[in-house]
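Why does residue order matter? Because the sequence determines the fold. Keep that principle in mind as you read this record.
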Amino acid sequence: MTALNRVPSLMVRAGTASALTLAAVGGSVVVPGVASDAAAATPATKALQIAASKKGSPYRYGATGPRRFDCSGLTLYSFKKAGKKLPRTAAQQYNKTHHISSKSRKAGDLVFFHSGSSVYHVGIYAGKGKIWHAPKTGDVVRLQKLWTKSVWYGRVK
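Structure:
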């Protein structure tokens, strides 16, 4: 009998085996509601994780990473690392995404800030009304609560 075959009987005998016990016998832990790395590894999810990994990176106008970013530079860099190509500016990125409603938004979608019909800022939706973005000169890449309803959402194709 292999170690992997013993995992179910371990769980039956012990009730619930700890993650360390399962790891020691070559098993895996399944947590309800949490996708495995392979299942969760969509380009949008990867881009969101990449943007989050840049927390604290300084803002610099025109910068596209890997150490400094402006708003669209962060989204461009994050999606490029996730295997998707985006144009350079926030407005160009808006024009290249599939536009969705706020009710349809998901973590990893782009959030476009606009004044009238002009897009002036972009971030990556992180869920629960928050975005990862590179705000402005003197600031750093960070997670922030949405501060306006003047936003549009786009899903990278």
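Residues 10 and 17 are 7 Å apart (CA to CA).
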